[in-house]
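Suppose you are handed only these lines of text.
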Amino acid sequence: MKPALSVGIAGLGTVGAGVVRLLRDNATPIAARAGRSIEVVAVSARDRKRDRGVALEGVRWHDDPVALVADAAVDVVVELIGGAEGAAYDVVMAALAAGKPVVTANKALIATRGSAIAAFPNASLRFEAAVAGGIPVIKTLREGLAADRIASVSGIFNGTCNYILSRMRAEKLDFATVLADAQARGYAEADPSFDIDGVDTAHKLAILAAIAFGRQVDFASVHVEGIRGVNALDIAFAEELGYRIKLLGIARATAAGIETRVHPAMVPLTSPLAQVDGVNNAVVIQGDPVGQIVLQGRGAGAGPTASAVVADLIDLARNRAAPLLGVETGSLQACASVPMAVHQGAYFLRLMVADQPGVIADVTAVLRDHSISLESMLQHGRSPGDAVAVVLVTHVTHEAAMAAALARLAALAAVREPPALIRIETA
Ligand code: NDP
Ligand code: HSE
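From them, the structure of the protein bound to L-homoserine can be written out as follows.
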Protein backbone atom coordinates (compact mmCIF):
# COMPACT_ATOMS: atom_id res chain seq x y z
CA MET A 1 0.00 0.00 0.00
CA LYS A 2 1.16 3.58 -0.73
CA PRO A 3 2.17 5.89 2.17
CA ALA A 4 -0.71 7.43 4.11
CA LEU A 5 -2.34 10.66 2.93
CA SER A 6 -1.68 13.14 5.74
CA VAL A 7 -4.51 15.55 6.42
CA GLY A 8 -4.64 18.82 8.37
CA ILE A 9 -8.11 19.91 9.46
CA ALA A 10 -8.79 23.60 10.12
CA GLY A 11 -12.07 23.84 12.08
CA LEU A 12 -13.17 21.18 14.56
CA GLY A 13 -16.83 22.01 15.02
CA THR A 14 -19.84 19.96 13.87
CA VAL A 15 -18.28 18.93 10.56
CA GLY A 16 -14.58 18.93 11.51
CA ALA A 17 -15.15 16.63 14.48
CA GLY A 18 -17.42 14.51 12.26
CA VAL A 19 -14.59 14.06 9.75
CA VAL A 20 -12.12 13.01 12.47
CA ARG A 21 -14.70 10.51 13.76
CA LEU A 22 -15.53 9.07 10.33
CA LEU A 23 -11.86 8.64 9.36
CA ARG A 24 -11.37 6.68 12.59
CA ASP A 25 -14.64 4.66 12.55
CA ASN A 26 -14.45 3.63 8.87
CA ALA A 27 -10.65 3.52 8.57
CA THR A 28 -10.57 0.04 7.01
CA PRO A 29 -13.05 0.51 4.12
CA ILE A 30 -11.73 4.04 3.53
CA ALA A 31 -8.14 2.77 3.18
CA ALA A 32 -9.29 0.00 0.85
CA ARG A 33 -11.12 2.46 -1.40
CA ALA A 34 -8.38 5.09 -1.24
CA GLY A 35 -5.58 2.60 -1.84
CA ARG A 36 -3.83 4.03 1.22
CA SER A 37 -4.76 5.10 4.71
CA ILE A 38 -5.92 8.65 5.38
CA GLU A 39 -4.58 10.07 8.63
CA VAL A 40 -5.26 13.30 10.48
CA VAL A 41 -1.85 14.68 11.48
CA ALA A 42 -2.75 18.25 12.46
CA VAL A 43 -5.82 20.25 13.52
CA SER A 44 -6.70 23.84 14.30
CA ALA A 45 -9.59 25.49 16.16
CA ARG A 46 -9.99 28.43 18.50
CA ASP A 47 -10.42 26.71 21.84
CA ARG A 48 -7.79 24.09 22.57
CA LYS A 49 -9.50 23.05 25.81
CA ARG A 50 -12.94 22.30 24.38
CA ASP A 51 -13.97 18.63 24.42
CA ARG A 52 -14.93 17.72 20.86
CA GLY A 53 -15.85 14.11 21.58
CA VAL A 54 -13.02 12.78 19.40
CA ALA A 55 -9.57 11.45 20.32
CA LEU A 56 -6.78 13.82 19.24
CA GLU A 57 -3.76 12.13 20.85
CA GLY A 58 -0.70 12.37 18.63
CA VAL A 59 -2.31 15.02 16.44
CA ARG A 60 -0.48 18.36 16.27
CA TRP A 61 -2.54 21.35 17.39
CA HIS A 62 -2.18 24.76 15.71
CA ASP A 63 -3.79 27.82 17.26
CA ASP A 64 -3.28 29.58 13.94
CA PRO A 65 -4.99 27.73 11.05
CA VAL A 66 -2.64 29.31 8.52
CA ALA A 67 0.29 27.75 10.42
CA LEU A 68 -1.42 24.39 9.91
CA VAL A 69 -1.21 24.97 6.16
CA ALA A 70 2.55 25.51 6.47
CA ASP A 71 2.99 22.33 8.54
CA ALA A 72 5.36 20.19 6.45
CA ALA A 73 3.60 17.00 7.55
CA VAL A 74 0.28 18.14 6.03
CA ASP A 75 -0.35 16.90 2.46
CA VAL A 76 -3.97 18.07 2.21
CA VAL A 77 -5.76 20.93 3.95
CA VAL A 78 -9.39 20.42 4.97
CA GLU A 79 -11.05 23.80 5.65
CA LEU A 80 -14.09 23.46 7.93
CA ILE A 81 -14.13 26.86 9.63
CA GLY A 82 -16.76 28.46 7.42
CA GLY A 83 -17.42 31.92 6.02
CA ALA A 84 -16.23 33.68 2.88
CA GLU A 85 -13.83 35.89 4.79
CA GLY A 86 -11.45 35.79 7.73
CA ALA A 87 -9.72 32.61 8.82
CA ALA A 88 -11.43 30.30 6.31
CA TYR A 89 -10.46 32.52 3.38
CA ASP A 90 -6.90 32.92 4.68
CA VAL A 91 -6.50 29.15 5.07
CA VAL A 92 -7.80 28.33 1.59
CA MET A 93 -5.71 31.03 -0.10
CA ALA A 94 -2.57 30.02 1.82
CA ALA A 95 -3.05 26.39 0.85
CA LEU A 96 -3.68 27.17 -2.82
CA ALA A 97 -0.63 29.47 -2.86
CA ALA A 98 1.44 26.68 -1.32
CA GLY A 99 0.15 24.24 -3.95
CA LYS A 100 -1.53 22.03 -1.36
CA PRO A 101 -4.86 20.41 -2.27
CA VAL A 102 -7.86 21.76 -0.38
CA VAL A 103 -11.10 20.04 0.61
CA THR A 104 -13.84 22.30 1.95
CA ALA A 105 -17.56 22.35 2.82
CA ASN A 106 -17.62 26.13 2.53
CA LYS A 107 -20.30 27.09 0.01
CA ALA A 108 -20.14 30.78 0.94
CA LEU A 109 -16.49 30.89 -0.10
CA ILE A 110 -16.92 28.86 -3.29
CA ALA A 111 -19.98 30.92 -4.32
CA THR A 112 -18.52 34.37 -3.69
CA ARG A 113 -14.74 34.12 -3.99
CA GLY A 114 -14.50 32.81 -7.55
CA SER A 115 -12.12 35.52 -8.73
CA ALA A 116 -9.66 34.91 -5.87
CA ILE A 117 -9.78 31.16 -6.56
CA ALA A 118 -9.29 31.80 -10.29
CA ALA A 119 -5.85 33.22 -9.49
CA PHE A 120 -4.81 29.58 -8.98
CA PRO A 121 -5.85 27.93 -12.27
CA ASN A 122 -4.18 24.65 -11.39
CA ALA A 123 -5.64 24.54 -7.89
CA SER A 124 -6.81 21.24 -6.51
CA LEU A 125 -9.97 22.33 -4.68
CA ARG A 126 -12.79 19.94 -3.81
CA PHE A 127 -16.13 20.90 -2.33
CA GLU A 128 -18.63 18.03 -2.57
CA ALA A 129 -19.82 18.76 0.99
CA ALA A 130 -20.62 22.38 0.12
CA VAL A 131 -23.91 21.47 -1.58
CA ALA A 132 -26.64 19.27 -0.11
CA GLY A 133 -24.54 17.72 2.68
CA GLY A 134 -24.26 13.98 2.15
CA ILE A 135 -25.85 13.91 -1.33
CA PRO A 136 -23.11 13.48 -3.97
CA VAL A 137 -24.62 16.07 -6.30
CA ILE A 138 -21.39 17.75 -7.44
CA LYS A 139 -19.97 14.42 -8.58
CA THR A 140 -23.30 13.49 -10.18
CA LEU A 141 -23.48 16.69 -12.22
CA ARG A 142 -19.80 17.08 -12.99
CA GLU A 143 -18.93 13.47 -13.72
CA GLY A 144 -21.98 11.19 -13.84
CA LEU A 145 -23.90 13.53 -16.17
CA ALA A 146 -20.87 14.83 -18.06
CA ALA A 147 -22.42 13.72 -21.38
CA ASP A 148 -25.74 15.49 -20.85
CA ARG A 149 -27.19 18.90 -21.62
CA ILE A 150 -28.74 20.08 -18.39
CA ALA A 151 -32.11 21.83 -18.62
CA SER A 152 -32.64 22.48 -14.92
CA VAL A 153 -31.38 21.77 -11.43
CA SER A 154 -33.78 22.45 -8.62
CA GLY A 155 -34.59 21.28 -5.15
CA ILE A 156 -34.35 21.66 -1.42
CA PHE A 157 -30.79 22.65 -0.52
CA ASN A 158 -31.08 23.89 3.05
CA GLY A 159 -31.61 21.37 5.83
CA THR A 160 -32.36 24.00 8.47
CA CYS A 161 -35.22 25.55 6.49
CA ASN A 162 -36.66 22.20 5.52
CA TYR A 163 -36.48 21.09 9.15
CA ILE A 164 -38.26 24.26 10.27
CA LEU A 165 -41.00 24.09 7.63
CA SER A 166 -41.56 20.35 8.21
CA ARG A 167 -41.95 20.65 11.98
CA MET A 168 -44.06 23.81 11.74
CA ARG A 169 -46.46 21.86 9.52
CA ALA A 170 -46.46 18.47 11.23
CA GLU A 171 -46.27 19.56 14.87
CA LYS A 172 -47.71 23.08 14.63
CA LEU A 173 -44.57 24.41 16.32
CA ASP A 174 -43.57 28.03 16.01
CA PHE A 175 -40.66 29.20 13.86
CA ALA A 176 -38.33 30.29 16.69
CA THR A 177 -38.67 27.00 18.63
CA VAL A 178 -37.74 24.85 15.64
CA LEU A 179 -34.89 27.14 14.59
CA ALA A 180 -33.35 26.82 18.08
CA ASP A 181 -33.60 23.03 17.78
CA ALA A 182 -31.96 23.06 14.32
CA GLN A 183 -29.11 25.14 15.77
CA ALA A 184 -28.68 22.72 18.68
CA ARG A 185 -28.42 19.83 16.19
CA GLY A 186 -25.59 21.59 14.33
CA TYR A 187 -27.58 22.10 11.10
CA ALA A 188 -27.60 25.88 11.01
CA GLU A 189 -24.84 28.20 9.81
CA ALA A 190 -22.83 30.19 12.36
CA ASP A 191 -25.14 33.06 11.35
CA PRO A 192 -28.54 31.34 10.95
CA SER A 193 -29.92 34.26 8.96
CA PHE A 194 -27.92 32.77 6.08
CA ASP A 195 -30.22 29.74 6.32
CA ILE A 196 -33.59 31.36 6.92
CA ASP A 197 -33.09 34.30 4.56
CA GLY A 198 -32.26 31.94 1.69
CA VAL A 199 -28.61 33.01 1.31
CA ASP A 200 -27.20 29.54 2.00
CA THR A 201 -29.54 28.03 -0.59
CA ALA A 202 -28.46 30.74 -3.04
CA HIS A 203 -24.77 29.95 -2.46
CA LYS A 204 -25.46 26.30 -3.25
CA LEU A 205 -27.67 27.08 -6.23
CA ALA A 206 -25.05 29.39 -7.73
CA ILE A 207 -22.48 26.58 -7.49
CA LEU A 208 -24.83 24.00 -9.02
CA ALA A 209 -25.85 26.36 -11.84
CA ALA A 210 -22.20 26.98 -12.70
CA ILE A 211 -21.50 23.27 -13.03
CA ALA A 212 -24.80 22.46 -14.75
CA PHE A 213 -24.49 25.20 -17.36
CA GLY A 214 -20.69 25.38 -17.68
CA ARG A 215 -20.35 29.01 -16.62
CA GLN A 216 -18.65 30.98 -13.84
CA VAL A 217 -20.37 31.03 -10.45
CA ASP A 218 -22.81 33.99 -10.54
CA PHE A 219 -24.11 34.44 -7.01
CA ALA A 220 -25.02 38.10 -7.53
CA SER A 221 -27.70 37.20 -10.11
CA VAL A 222 -29.62 34.79 -7.88
CA HIS A 223 -33.03 36.10 -6.79
CA VAL A 224 -33.19 35.37 -3.05
CA GLU A 225 -36.12 35.21 -0.62
CA GLY A 226 -36.19 33.29 2.66
CA ILE A 227 -38.78 31.72 4.91
CA ARG A 228 -39.28 34.37 7.61
CA GLY A 229 -42.64 35.35 6.07
CA VAL A 230 -44.07 31.81 5.94
CA ASN A 231 -46.67 31.43 8.68
CA ALA A 232 -49.00 28.78 10.07
CA LEU A 233 -51.99 30.14 8.15
CA ASP A 234 -50.27 29.74 4.78
CA ILE A 235 -49.00 26.27 5.71
CA ALA A 236 -52.61 25.27 6.51
CA PHE A 237 -54.00 26.79 3.29
CA ALA A 238 -51.29 24.99 1.32
CA GLU A 239 -52.43 21.67 2.82
CA GLU A 240 -56.04 22.42 1.98
CA LEU A 241 -55.12 23.20 -1.64
CA GLY A 242 -52.99 20.06 -2.02
CA TYR A 243 -49.56 21.67 -1.70
CA ARG A 244 -46.56 21.71 0.66
CA ILE A 245 -44.45 24.79 1.25
CA LYS A 246 -40.71 24.28 0.64
CA LEU A 247 -37.78 26.63 0.27
CA LEU A 248 -36.61 25.87 -3.26
CA GLY A 249 -33.56 26.72 -5.29
CA ILE A 250 -34.25 26.62 -9.02
CA ALA A 251 -31.78 27.02 -11.89
CA ARG A 252 -33.28 26.66 -15.34
CA ALA A 253 -32.13 27.27 -18.89
CA THR A 254 -34.62 29.49 -20.73
CA ALA A 255 -34.55 31.01 -24.22
CA ALA A 256 -33.41 34.30 -22.63
CA GLY A 257 -30.67 32.82 -20.47
CA ILE A 258 -30.29 31.14 -17.09
CA GLU A 259 -32.94 31.75 -14.42
CA THR A 260 -31.67 31.29 -10.83
CA ARG A 261 -34.08 31.88 -7.97
CA VAL A 262 -34.51 30.96 -4.32
CA HIS A 263 -37.87 31.43 -2.62
CA PRO A 264 -40.55 29.58 -0.67
CA ALA A 265 -42.78 27.70 -3.09
CA MET A 266 -45.89 25.57 -3.00
CA VAL A 267 -45.26 22.18 -4.58
CA PRO A 268 -48.06 19.70 -5.31
CA LEU A 269 -48.28 16.73 -2.95
CA THR A 270 -47.52 14.52 -5.97
CA SER A 271 -44.13 16.21 -6.53
CA PRO A 272 -41.02 14.26 -5.40
CA LEU A 273 -40.10 17.33 -3.34
CA ALA A 274 -43.35 17.43 -1.32
CA GLN A 275 -42.50 14.35 0.74
CA VAL A 276 -38.92 15.42 1.55
CA ASP A 277 -39.08 16.36 5.21
CA GLY A 278 -36.84 17.24 8.12
CA VAL A 279 -33.16 17.90 7.52
CA ASN A 280 -33.32 16.07 4.20
CA ASN A 281 -32.40 17.76 0.95
CA ALA A 282 -33.43 16.74 -2.54
CA VAL A 283 -32.06 17.60 -5.94
CA VAL A 284 -34.04 17.20 -9.16
CA ILE A 285 -31.97 17.31 -12.34
CA GLN A 286 -33.45 17.37 -15.86
CA GLY A 287 -30.90 16.36 -18.45
CA ASP A 288 -30.83 15.36 -22.08
CA PRO A 289 -30.70 12.47 -22.78
CA VAL A 290 -30.80 11.18 -19.20
CA GLY A 291 -34.24 12.59 -18.32
CA GLN A 292 -35.10 13.25 -14.70
CA ILE A 293 -32.81 12.28 -11.81
CA VAL A 294 -33.89 12.74 -8.20
CA LEU A 295 -31.33 12.55 -5.38
CA GLN A 296 -32.41 12.68 -1.77
CA GLY A 297 -30.65 12.46 1.57
CA ARG A 298 -29.55 14.31 4.66
CA GLY A 299 -28.39 17.79 3.75
CA ALA A 300 -26.73 18.83 7.00
CA GLY A 301 -25.24 17.45 10.19
CA ALA A 302 -21.91 15.93 11.16
CA GLY A 303 -22.19 12.45 9.62
CA PRO A 304 -23.64 13.24 6.18
CA THR A 305 -21.33 16.20 5.64
CA ALA A 306 -18.27 14.25 6.80
CA SER A 307 -19.26 11.53 4.31
CA ALA A 308 -18.89 14.02 1.45
CA VAL A 309 -15.64 15.52 2.80
CA VAL A 310 -14.02 12.09 3.15
CA ALA A 311 -15.19 11.06 -0.33
CA ASP A 312 -13.23 14.05 -1.66
CA LEU A 313 -10.19 12.93 0.36
CA ILE A 314 -10.46 9.45 -1.16
CA ASP A 315 -10.53 10.99 -4.65
CA LEU A 316 -7.39 12.92 -3.76
CA ALA A 317 -5.70 9.79 -2.43
CA ARG A 318 -6.50 8.10 -5.75
CA ASN A 319 -5.44 11.15 -7.81
CA ARG A 320 -8.91 11.27 -9.36
CA ALA A 321 -9.50 14.77 -10.67
CA ALA A 322 -12.07 16.76 -12.61
CA PRO A 323 -11.97 20.49 -13.45
CA LEU A 324 -13.38 22.70 -10.67
CA LEU A 325 -16.64 23.46 -12.51
CA GLY A 326 -16.62 20.46 -14.83
CA VAL A 327 -14.88 22.10 -17.80
CA GLU A 328 -11.53 23.87 -18.15
CA THR A 329 -11.73 27.55 -17.19
CA GLY A 330 -11.18 28.63 -20.80
CA SER A 331 -14.25 26.64 -21.89
CA LEU A 332 -16.70 28.25 -19.44
CA GLN A 333 -19.57 29.96 -21.29
CA ALA A 334 -20.77 33.53 -20.74
CA CYS A 335 -24.46 32.63 -20.20
CA ALA A 336 -26.79 35.57 -19.47
CA SER A 337 -28.73 35.51 -16.21
CA VAL A 338 -32.45 36.24 -16.52
CA PRO A 339 -33.94 38.85 -14.13
CA MET A 340 -36.76 37.71 -11.87
CA ALA A 341 -39.18 40.25 -13.40
CA VAL A 342 -39.48 38.14 -16.55
CA HIS A 343 -40.30 34.95 -14.67
CA GLN A 344 -43.71 33.44 -15.37
CA GLY A 345 -45.60 31.20 -13.00
CA ALA A 346 -48.70 30.67 -10.89
CA TYR A 347 -49.13 32.37 -7.53
CA PHE A 348 -50.83 31.83 -4.18
CA LEU A 349 -51.95 35.15 -2.73
CA ARG A 350 -53.44 35.60 0.74
CA LEU A 351 -55.07 38.88 1.70
CA MET A 352 -56.38 39.77 5.14
CA VAL A 353 -59.35 41.91 4.16
CA ALA A 354 -62.18 43.66 5.96
CA ASP A 355 -65.20 41.36 5.82
CA GLN A 356 -67.53 43.78 4.01
CA PRO A 357 -69.40 43.97 0.67
CA GLY A 358 -67.46 45.06 -2.41
CA VAL A 359 -63.97 44.03 -1.27
CA ILE A 360 -63.66 41.08 -3.65
CA ALA A 361 -64.82 43.30 -6.52
CA ASP A 362 -62.01 45.76 -5.73
CA VAL A 363 -59.45 42.98 -5.49
CA THR A 364 -60.46 41.30 -8.76
CA ALA A 365 -60.52 44.69 -10.50
CA VAL A 366 -56.83 45.12 -9.67
CA LEU A 367 -56.06 41.64 -11.00
CA ARG A 368 -58.07 42.36 -14.15
CA ASP A 369 -56.11 45.61 -14.71
CA HIS A 370 -52.88 43.58 -14.71
CA SER A 371 -54.29 40.77 -16.90
CA ILE A 372 -54.01 38.24 -14.08
CA SER A 373 -56.40 35.34 -14.41
CA LEU A 374 -57.68 33.45 -11.36
CA GLU A 375 -57.82 29.69 -11.01
CA SER A 376 -59.57 29.64 -7.64
CA MET A 377 -60.58 31.70 -4.63
CA LEU A 378 -61.11 30.62 -1.03
CA GLN A 379 -62.66 32.23 2.03
CA HIS A 380 -63.76 30.53 5.23
CA GLY A 381 -66.41 31.76 7.65
CA ARG A 382 -67.41 35.31 8.37
CA SER A 383 -66.13 37.97 10.73
CA PRO A 384 -68.11 41.14 9.93
CA GLY A 385 -66.10 44.27 10.67
CA ASP A 386 -63.00 42.18 11.23
CA ALA A 387 -60.23 40.89 8.94
CA VAL A 388 -60.77 37.60 7.16
CA ALA A 389 -58.33 35.61 5.02
CA VAL A 390 -59.07 35.50 1.30
CA VAL A 391 -56.88 33.19 -0.76
CA LEU A 392 -56.46 33.60 -4.50
CA VAL A 393 -54.66 31.15 -6.78
CA THR A 394 -53.70 32.53 -10.17
CA HIS A 395 -53.10 30.91 -13.52
CA VAL A 396 -49.62 31.35 -15.00
CA THR A 397 -48.82 35.04 -15.18
CA HIS A 398 -45.85 37.40 -15.34
CA GLU A 399 -43.86 38.17 -12.19
CA ALA A 400 -43.76 41.87 -13.15
CA ALA A 401 -47.58 41.97 -13.45
CA MET A 402 -47.93 40.20 -10.12
CA ALA A 403 -45.56 42.61 -8.40
CA ALA A 404 -47.45 45.63 -9.76
CA ALA A 405 -50.81 44.15 -8.72
CA LEU A 406 -49.46 43.32 -5.27
CA ALA A 407 -48.41 46.92 -4.66
CA ARG A 408 -51.93 48.14 -5.55
CA LEU A 409 -53.63 45.44 -3.46
CA ALA A 410 -51.50 46.32 -0.43
CA ALA A 411 -52.67 49.93 -0.76
CA LEU A 412 -56.43 49.11 -0.76
CA ALA A 413 -58.18 50.46 2.34
CA ALA A 414 -59.87 47.09 2.96
CA VAL A 415 -56.56 45.16 2.97
CA ARG A 416 -55.50 45.11 6.62
CA GLU A 417 -52.06 43.40 6.45
CA PRO A 418 -49.28 43.18 3.85
CA PRO A 419 -50.39 40.49 1.35
CA ALA A 420 -48.67 37.08 1.50
CA LEU A 421 -47.47 35.79 -1.87
CA ILE A 422 -46.03 32.33 -2.49
CA ARG A 423 -45.11 31.05 -5.94
CA ILE A 424 -46.52 27.72 -7.09
CA GLU A 425 -44.10 25.32 -8.78
CA THR A 426 -45.68 22.47 -10.68
CA ALA A 427 -42.88 21.60 -13.14
P1 NDP B 1 -18.90 25.08 13.46
O1 NDP B 1 -19.24 26.48 13.83
O2 NDP B 1 -19.52 23.97 14.20
O3 NDP B 1 -17.31 24.89 13.53
C1 NDP B 1 -16.42 25.88 13.10
C2 NDP B 1 -15.05 25.51 13.61
O4 NDP B 1 -14.13 26.48 13.14
C3 NDP B 1 -14.93 25.48 15.14
O5 NDP B 1 -14.20 24.36 15.53
C4 NDP B 1 -14.15 26.74 15.47
O6 NDP B 1 -13.31 26.62 16.60
C5 NDP B 1 -13.29 26.88 14.22
N1 NDP B 1 -12.85 28.24 14.02
C6 NDP B 1 -13.58 29.35 13.92
N2 NDP B 1 -12.79 30.42 13.75
C7 NDP B 1 -11.53 29.96 13.76
C8 NDP B 1 -10.26 30.56 13.65
N3 NDP B 1 -10.14 31.89 13.48
N4 NDP B 1 -9.17 29.77 13.72
C9 NDP B 1 -9.28 28.43 13.87
N5 NDP B 1 -10.46 27.80 13.98
C10 NDP B 1 -11.56 28.56 13.93
O7 NDP B 1 -19.20 24.98 11.89
P2 NDP B 1 -19.68 23.70 11.08
O8 NDP B 1 -18.82 22.55 11.40
O9 NDP B 1 -21.14 23.57 11.19
O10 NDP B 1 -19.41 24.20 9.58
C11 NDP B 1 -18.11 24.19 9.02
C12 NDP B 1 -18.24 24.43 7.53
O11 NDP B 1 -19.01 23.39 6.95
C13 NDP B 1 -18.94 25.73 7.14
O12 NDP B 1 -18.38 26.21 5.93
C14 NDP B 1 -20.38 25.28 6.88
O13 NDP B 1 -21.07 26.12 6.00
C15 NDP B 1 -20.11 23.94 6.24
N6 NDP B 1 -21.20 22.98 6.30
C16 NDP B 1 -21.79 22.70 7.50
C17 NDP B 1 -22.77 21.74 7.57
C18 NDP B 1 -23.44 21.41 8.87
O14 NDP B 1 -24.38 20.61 8.85
N7 NDP B 1 -23.02 21.98 10.00
C19 NDP B 1 -23.21 21.01 6.38
C20 NDP B 1 -22.51 21.37 5.17
C21 NDP B 1 -21.55 22.33 5.14
P3 NDP B 1 -13.90 26.37 18.08
O15 NDP B 1 -14.57 25.03 18.02
O16 NDP B 1 -12.69 26.36 18.96
O17 NDP B 1 -14.84 27.49 18.34
N1 HSE C 1 -26.82 25.26 7.28
C1 HSE C 1 -26.83 24.36 6.19
C2 HSE C 1 -28.20 23.71 6.08
C3 HSE C 1 -25.79 23.29 6.40
O1 HSE C 1 -29.00 23.82 7.01
O2 HSE C 1 -28.48 23.11 5.06
C4 HSE C 1 -25.61 22.40 5.21
O3 HSE C 1 -25.04 23.08 4.15
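What can we learn from it? The chain has a mean pLDDT of 96. The chain has 15 helices and 17 strands.
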